[in-house]
Write a structure and sequence with these properties.
The protein is mainly β and 91 residues long. It contains 1 helix and 4 strands; from the N terminus they run βββαβ. The protein has a 4-stranded mixed β-sheet. It has a domain of 61 residues.
């Protein structure tokens, strides 16, 4: 699997996690959305950078944002109903 870019993020106090970024394939329900894949974790940032020299240090402000626009909102009608108030329990 190939990725467009790589990021290193600090998780907790001890680990640096490397993620690969790309897009979900066309057969996915998330087709075209950014895809973040965990690749590995390291005890030091130097070890992570040695393993993935092309990776940039990232954070939630600099990484691609994953949209949830494809999900229905609270007031959106949903065919077949998926909210508790859509069901008639016969009372």
């Amino acid at each position: 699997m190939t990725f467009d870019c790589y990021t290193i993020n600090r998780r907790g106090d001890e680990n640096y996690c490397v993620y690969g970024w790309g897009e979900y394939p066309e057969y996915s329900v998330l087709a075209g959305q950014p895809r973040k894949v965990f690749l590995n974790s390291y005890k030091t940032i130097e070890a992570a950078q040695e393993a993935y020299p092309e990776a940039k240090v990232g954070n939630r402000w600099t990484e691609p944002q994953v949209s949830v626009n494809h999900l229905p909102g609270e007031d959106d009608p949903v065919p077949g109903g998926m909210y508790l108030d859509d069901y008639d329990d016969g009372i």
